[in-house]
């Protein structure tokens, strides 16, 4: 059997993830990319609050899959945008796992 993330079924895990994305290091990173996230919100239709900590990775993954399969990307999805998305998504995933209270999240 594979281990699975507790996700929605565990209120404590959800609270820890909220703390993670409200933590000072994450907020500093987010402020440094605020204008990018706001532009991404305009392009995708996701509110900033849904992009942060949740949908940025999905947007990056979707666009990357489209690019790999030679599908037409939206005009705004330039290589620079994809690179910035990759960096933000990588930070979010890494920080959510290895950052704030990682030992408690791993229980």
UniProtKB/TrEMBL annotation:
<protein>
    <submittedName>
        <fullName>Acid phosphatase, testicular</fullName>
    </submittedName>
</protein>
<dbReference type="InterPro" id="IPR029033">
    <property type="entry name" value="His_PPase_superfam"/>
</dbReference>
């Amino acid at each position: 059997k594979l281990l699975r993330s507790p996700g929605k079924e565990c209120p404590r895990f959800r609270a820890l993830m909220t703390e993670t994305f409200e933590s000072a290091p994450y907020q500093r990173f987010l402020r440094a990319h605020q204008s990018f996230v706001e532009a991404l919100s305009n392009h995708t239709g996701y509110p900033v609050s849904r992009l942060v900590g949740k949908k940025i990775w999905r947007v990056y993954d979707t666009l990357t899959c489209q690019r790999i399969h030679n599908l037409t990307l939206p005009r705004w999805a330039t290589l620079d945008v994809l690179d910035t998305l990759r960096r933000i998504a990588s930070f979010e995933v890494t920080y959510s796992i290895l950052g704030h209270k990682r030992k408690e999240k791993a229980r």
